[in-house]
Structure to design on (191 residues):
């Protein structure tokens, strides 16, 4: 059994999908949810899902000592970033080499980097009159949104697209592909 920790800062819709997807899995279990945002809706979701929830801070993330002990105490094998807005420090990237997976709501390398999250990404995409957008699932390295790509999926942008309609399309792709891609990646690495 591989044990994953899911990190988020926002509404937690991906976290909920991931928990539901792996609920009956014999291979992967969601063992911990971690957030830096006490006021995020994912706190409510985590309580409902019954998965242990840990609050972290930028400082604890960056020093990594306490967080590393916590992750080890839960025997965490993989870290999944699902709308987690803090930068992962180099120490943590090295410790979980090729075992931290992030989802980004654009076709990287376009619309990645600091400040590019959630609706900011969709606004920038629409402002540039793009005809398509999509999702990127990738390994995390020490640079924002620059690690090796695992999977990309596209969606088309319609004439009357708005930030919220694009967000819905992106969330739908995330729901369809993120949990399955996590599963495939972990299984492939364990073969
Ligand atoms: C998701 O769309 C995810 O791709 C994005 O934040 C949203 C979180 O939604 N991540 C980033 O923008 C990372 N740079 P959720 O909290 O409902 O899962």
């Amino acid at each position: 059994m591989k044990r994953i920790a899911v990190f988020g800062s926002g509404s937690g819709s991906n976290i909920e999908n991931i928990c539901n997807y792996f609920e009956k899995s014999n291979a992967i279990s969601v063992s911990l949810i971690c957030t830096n945002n006490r006021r995020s809706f994912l706190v409510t979701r985590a309580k409902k899902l019954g998965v242990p929830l840990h609050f972290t801070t930028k400082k604890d993330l960056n020093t990594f000592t306490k967080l590393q002990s916590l992750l080890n105490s839960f025997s965490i094998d993989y870290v999944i970033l699902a709308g987690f807005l803090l930068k992962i420090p180099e120490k943590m990237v090295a410790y979980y080499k090729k075992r931290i997976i992030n989802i980004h709501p654009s076709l990287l390398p376009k619309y990645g980097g600091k400040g590019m999250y959630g609706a900011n990404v969709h606004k920038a995409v629409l402002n540039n009159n793009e005809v398509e957008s999509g999702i990127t699932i990738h390994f995390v390295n020490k640079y924002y949104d620059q690690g090796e790509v695992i999977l990309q999926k596209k969606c088309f942008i319609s004439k009357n697209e708005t930030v919220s309609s694009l967000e819905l399309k992106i969330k739908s792709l995330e729901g369809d592909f993120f949990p399955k891609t996590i599963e495939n990646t972990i299984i492939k690495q364990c073969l």
Observations:
- Residues 8, 10-14, 82-83, 103-105, 116-118, 121, 170, 174 surround glycinamide ribonucleotide (CB under 6 Å).
- Helices lie at 13-22, 41-49, 58-63, 65-73, 90-95, 118-127, 163-190.
- The first strand starts at residue 2 and ends at 8.
